[in-house]
Write a structure and sequence with these properties.
The protein has seven helices and eleven strands. The protein has 239 residues and is an alpha+beta fold. It folds into two domains: 134 residues, Alpha-Beta Plaits; 90 residues, Alpha-Beta Plaits (2-Layer Sandwich). The longest helix has 16 residues. It is globular.
């Protein structure tokens, strides 16, 4: 058994819905244990943002739990399948974890065929990257959960504060038995989850602007928080 504690990351892949099969095929071939897909909607409207894969269209938002060293390999394989000149291929980024279920963590400690064997050179490079990432976080993922119907206005405010685009996912808050209030928020209301990837220097102005306009005390009843993003990777060029 491998006694080295694996470093796990949550990999986000945001790609046009019609390209979802490419990502799914790669993940199936590599026998990735944990990945989940949701349908979202891009909110950006410029040609440049369309090239980045975050323009206005139906999006597939894929969340994958994997070892840190596996994420770049998966993205490289997806890039190969898409083709280097694939326009609007999408974007991928990783988020470090602060905690995880112990049983799932143990699964990643077990040796198995789903992980590519790493050379000592790769292990050393990944260790250096982890140290660098921990001290040089340059991007953040702003996550906002608001009542349904406010996403367009929300993104207008976010763009005015410096956001370049975002992805909207429809969702619903649930409780076990009946409709309840949590800090004044109706947990069974239809919700929209808005994901905004931004540089760290723009994070605070964006969060302040959207919280003031669509925060918890407004009709949108928005919850706004952020997560550090340690690596951002475009899907239409190679590493």
């Amino acid at each position: 058994m491998n006694n080295t504690a694996p470093v796990l990351k949550l990999l986000f892949v945001i790609i046009d819905w019609n390209k979802l099969k490419v990502v799914s095929k790669v993940f199936d071939q590599e026998r990735i244990r944990f990945h989940f897909v949701s349908k979202g909607k891009g909110t950006a409207n410029s040609e440049i943002l369309d090239v980045l894969g975050i323009g206005s269209s139906e999006k597939a938002v894929i969340l994958c739990l994997e070892q840190a060293g596996m994420a770049p390999f998966l993205i490289q394989e997806v890039r190969k399948k898409l083709g280097v000149h694939s326009v609007g291929a999408g974007i991928a980024f990783t988020v470090p974890l602060s905690g995880i279920n112990n049983l799932i963590f143990k699964l990643f400690k077990e040796p198995g065929p789903i992980h590519k064997p790493e050379t000592s050179e790769n292990q050393e490079r990944n260790t250096k990257e982890e140290v660098k990432m921990s001290t040089e976080i340059k991007n953040d993922l702003i996550i906002s959960i608001i009542n349904q119907g406010y996403s367009d206005e929300f993104m207008t405010v976010a763009r005015e504060a410096g956001a370049t685009g975002g992805t909207v996912i429809n969702a619903r808050g649930l409780d076990h038995q009946k409709r309840v209030k949590f800090f004044g928020v109706s947990v069974q209301d239809e919700k929209e989850i808005i994901l905004i990837l931004t540089s760290r220097d723009r994070k605070v102005p964006i969060m302040q602007a959207v919280s003031q306009a669509y925060g918890i005390t407004t009709e949108a009843e928005g919850l706004v928080f952020s997560l550090p993003v340690d690596k951002v990777m475009g899907l239409n060029d190679f590493l």
